[in-house]
Amino acid sequence: MLPLEGITVVSLEQAVAAPFATRQLADLGARVIKVERPEVGDFARGYDRTVKGLASHFVWLNRSKESLTLDLKQDGAKEVLARIIERADVFVQNLTPGATGRLGFGAQILRERHPSLIVCDISGYGSSGPYRDKKAYDLLVQCEVRLISITGTPETPSKVGVSMADIACGMYAYSGILAALLRRGRTDSISFISSCLRAVISRSSSSSATLRNQVGCIF
Question: What 3-state DSSP class applies to 118?
Fold first, then answer.
């Protein structure tokens, strides 16, 4: 028996950060229901056609999940999602800032409706501050925290080869969800988790950047 068998996760997710977090949960036995848009779905499906016609990123990030298509602009689809969430333990989302709130599935609303539900929001810049409503993506955040100065040359800084900001953010979300599940089991206290690319990658890259500035190399 896997550690998270019996745990249900509902995720409005796309790209890398949230799918990475929920894939880790699925690997531990959680039932992960991935909710996608009609026709287009998760846009990571279109990154390439490397794996038997499927995008390599999508296959890597979404194994062991169930997929459900819902047009959440329609009332009927919202009702379906609401019924699914009623039976869930965890709700994860990384849509455009404010999108879940406009749809009626914001963190505060869900926590009021479902006192035992763990809610995890993944964003570029967090839920407060001057950039809270802005979108973000991996390369942009790598540039903002000067992570690109670590690779390449002084004349031509380069993006880290993997999507480090997305993956680090997803890992923080994943570990936060595990901690919240443990806390709920011990104390009945419920947690709201917010993981954002900018804060996570700043923490992850600061020590390396400092070392580079001091000694000129990374060990």
Answer: strand
Among all residues, which ones are annotated catalytic?
Answer: 166
- Per DSSP, the three-state class of 90 is strand
- C-alpha dihedral over 178, 179, 183, 189, to 10 degrees? -90
Give the pLDDT confidence of 78-127 residue by residue, as tens digits: 999 999 999 999 999 999 999 999 999 999 999 899 999 999 999 988 87
Report the distance separating Cα 61 and Cα 177, nearest Å.
17
pLDDT at 199: 83
Phi, psi of 33 (to 5 degrees): -105, 110
CA distance 12 to 139: 22
Domains and CATH numbers, the chain: 8-212 (3.40.50.10540)
